[in-house]
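Revision sheet: structure tokens.
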Amino acid sequence: MMTIRPPKPEDIPQMRALLEQLGYAVTEADLRARLAAQAPEDCVLVAAEGPRLLGVMALHRATILHIGPVARIMTLVVDEAARSGGVGRRLVEAGADWARAAGCATLELTSGKQRLRAHAFYEGIGFVAQGLRLHLAL
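Predicted:
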């Protein structure tokens, strides 16, 4: 039975492995430090079946002056072996519940242009493509 819950310290090796599936190299020490530094406007959730992690999601709440509070999915990854099995949908639903409770009326995300399968998933659950994301490396 799949559960959605906050991560535990013992989940960190599996979280690192999940992020690596999307090409994000992060150390367990970095993950541990980032989870410890989590602010009240942040939320990290994992999808688990017993001790096995099926997915991980991180969200952030921000106030946008012309819109109001918005929740942004910062990270969402589902284990390759569990994709198309409802894990991503359950994580997004749990994230939407958190966002509503945090006073947000919008849930948004960014996604790499190459992730066409992810885009189809997001659009299939109701996300609408808008705008353009730009960034400046510091």
